[in-house]
Amino acid sequence: MKEFELINRYFKGRGIIRRDVELGIGDDCALVSVPTGHQLAVTTDTLVSGVHFFEDIPPRALGHRVIAVNLSDLAAMGAEPTWISLGLTLPTADMEWLEAFTEGMHEIAEYYNVQVIGGDTTQGPLTITVCAKGIVPNGKALKRSSARVGDWIYVTGSLGDAGLAIEARKQELMLDPLHYKAALDKFHYPAPRVAAGQVLRGLATSAIDISDGLLADLQHILKASLVGAKIHVDKVPMSNALRASLDEAARLRLALSFGDDYELLFTVNDNNKNAVETRLKQYGVEPVCIGQITAHNGEVQLVNKGQPYQLSGQGFEHFS
Question: Which residues does the record give as Mg(2+) 1 binding sites (predicted)?
Fold first, then answer.
């Protein structure tokens, strides 16, 4: 199958058609309309086989995952996802693989009312680049730079499951099959907190999604806001699968530093604390308070059951 045959078969005419897309796949550029009173939010992620996903990942799961991780970035800004462009580099045009991959991709895009509006296909080592766009009302975007001393630190869900799946695979850990499947599903099919991000607009003082690990991503907020943090590691939410599979030290290492969870990490002041908890619960999200912002610029104090706690490893970083 040649390039344009591939595009016409698996991308053009598939998925939802949004009214704000004036021209989609098939021309040199796509044309879209940004609503009056809104800003355009744009994020780009590249996923490389063997770096961001196992080479034998089911193609349907990969299609879901490449969209989900980009929507998670938009969620962290409080943006409504709208359009996606896809750059796809393939070793071969395997029709069975492409059918499953695009099924997973279009499925999650349709769920979040996102239209695939263009991109590019080339031949080479399996690499996928997604550019996701969204809209956010003027001046309402969540940022990393507005956390203040005394703000409470929250996460939207359990951490460490993706790390458990990866570690089990790499180190050949013997896990209960049901626990391994639950962890692997979290890694393969992350659920971006899109609704939660929009709820947090005007309530949270800062936000970020957890892709590189809680402590690593927390540092981005601290550096941008010129503040520190105190984290109660015993408050960090973990799944039953993680708790049943590892001892405390091992599961804390995964929950605090591994990443790929795509939950939201956000801060909120005293005045909005109850409102955030109430409104998120209306969307099925049970936010968990894990600490508080301090005046110690860039410093993170870890506490476990009231005692100082030390952890080796601070999260994933390319070229480190």
Answer: 44-45, 120
On whether both 118 and 162 belong to a single domain, the answer is no
56 is in an annotated binding site: no
Query: What's the CA gap between 244 and 292, in Å, rounded?
Result: 28
Say whether 234 counts as a known binding-site residue: no
28 annotated ligand binder = yes
Q: Is 120 assigned a ligand-binding role in the annotation?
A: yes
Q: Are residues 258 and 299 in the same domain?
A: yes
Structure tokens at 224: 């941008």
Cα gap 277→281, rounded to integer Å: 6
Structural domain count, the chain: 2
- 158 annotated ligand binder: no
Give per-residue pLDDT as tens, 144-164.
999 999 999 999 999 999 999
94 in a labelled binding site:
no
Residue 14 has pLDDT above 90, yes or no: no
